[in-house]
Write a structure and sequence with these properties.
By secondary structure, the chain is mainly alpha-helical. It has one domain (5-369). 65% of the residues lie in helices and 1% in strands. It contains 16 helices and two strands. It has a two-stranded parallel sheet. Helix 1 packs across helix 13 and helix 1 packs parallel to helix 14 (287-294). It is globular and about 60 Å long.
Length: 378
């Protein structure tokens, strides 16, 4: 296999899909789930949006599919050490900054109860494993992402990814169905990502198609992954049904999944779109900090304002303000944090003789690929 050639092109539609996905999640949190007041009573800020907003939880699933695509890209041409450095420097500094900002706003506003121990536990992202609650419950999806990264890094270290990707996919989906259709054990859901594996697999396969793979085996795996993702999305409805205003229609969920996942697939086939490149880049770049900041920070500000008669105006103002903050973080803070952490980790691993680069990944044809800014998929 020849050496991978990097160009300065992107997959611009993926940036727009990431923005659409985070908007769907915001609609879910403000139009259906609702902010919680200090008394713990949930109040839906924008109830008129509930019929559509209730399906916004699928925005996270779309992020997982995009993550599968991007992680396959990020792994190519790197060693497992290089992959870990790239992922850590991309997600962790921004997470710590946004988590600390949310924590600080909660202390300043005085809505909700946070402690120094909680902040310290959240530094490891999976705070509940240390007996502390998340500063913001959206971090659950970041834990899922980190578990996915861990499996990919392990299989890269063993030389199995992407060389034996078909076998890994089949084993993963077999474990998924074995758990979901039998004991439905929480430990299996967490360790093997059994609630979301189908979406990650769809993303992995979309990347293989993007790199030139075709054939009966590919399309069979793709159909299996799509079916798994639809099953998992509808399977989650039982858990989401605890909400008092639950009116989920499994058929609507299935249709949204098909359209969204095919949208991710088609996004990788579109090279140019009629939008300024700077706008597209910003739209994709700000989604990660926006996802991390929009819910709990927005909830506490909304609850402190108690805007009973002007909820729509209040939510619009709050979300717009948080979006502006997310853009500023992406534009002015993230780049130097990313470079600094990546540089220090690369120097540290080089000191121990560990290379961050790797051979060209077997299993893909040699061709040009875009220089993506690999995003986290919250």
């Amino acid at each position: 296999m020849g050496k991978t050639v990097h160009t300065h092109s992107r997959v611009p539609v993926l940036d727009l899909l990431r923005l659409a996905a985070v908007v769907a999640v915001i609609l879910y949190h403000y139009g259906f789930w609702g902010p919680s007041s200090a008394s713990g009573v949930s109040q839906v800020a924008l109830p008129a949006l509930a019929p559509a907003g209730q399906y916004g939880f699928l925005g996270v699933s779309v992020f997982f599919a995009i993550s599968g695509f991007v992680i396959a890209y990020s792994a190519e041409g790197r060693s497992w050490i290089g992959f870990i450095i790239a992922r850590f420097s991309r997600i962790y500094p921004t997470f710590v900054l946004c988590m600390t900002l949310t924590f600080t706003v909660m202390l300043a506003v005085g809505v909700g109860h946070v402690t120094r121990s909680q902040w310290l536990a959240n530094l490891v992202i999976a705070a509940p494993f240390l007996g502390q609650p998340y500063v913001d419950t959206v971090y659950w999806s970041l834990v899922i992402e980190v578990v996915f990264y861990g499996w990919v890094a392990l299989f890269m270290m063993l030389g199995w990814f992407p060389r034996h990707i078909d076998a890994l996919i089949l084993v993963w989906l077999t474990i998924t169905f074995a758990n979901e259709l039998t004991i439905d054990a929480p430990i299996f859901e967490k360790v093997f990502i059994a609630d979301d594996s189908g979406f990650f697999v769809v993303g992995l396969l979309i990347y293989q198609h993007y790199r030139g793979r075709r054939g009966t085996r590919f399309w069979s795996l793709f159909a299996l992954a799509m079916g798994t993702a639809i099953f998992q999305a509808t399977h989650k409805l039982g858990r989401l049904g605890a909400h008092p205003d639950n009116t989920f229609d499994p058929r609507v969920v299935a249709v949204i999944c098909v359209v969204a996942l095919l949208g991710v697939f088609l996004a990788t086939r579109i090279k140019r779109i009629p939008f300024p490149a700077t706008f597209v880049l910003a739209a994709g770049g700000m989604t990660y900090p926006l996802y991390l900041l929009h819910m709990q920070m927005g909830y506490v500000i909304f609850s402190a304002m108690e805007p009973h008669d002007h909820a729509a105006i209040a939510v619009t103002t709050i979300v717009a303000g948080i979006a502006l903050l997310a853009w500023a973080i992406w534009r002015f803070v993230e780049p130097w944090m990313h470079r600094f952490v990546k540089s220090k980790l690369t120097q540290l691993t080089a000191h121990f003789g560990w290379s961050s680069s790797g051979p060209h990944a077997d299993g893909f044809p040699s061709c040009q690929q875009p220089t993506l800014d690999p995003p986290v998929a919250p």
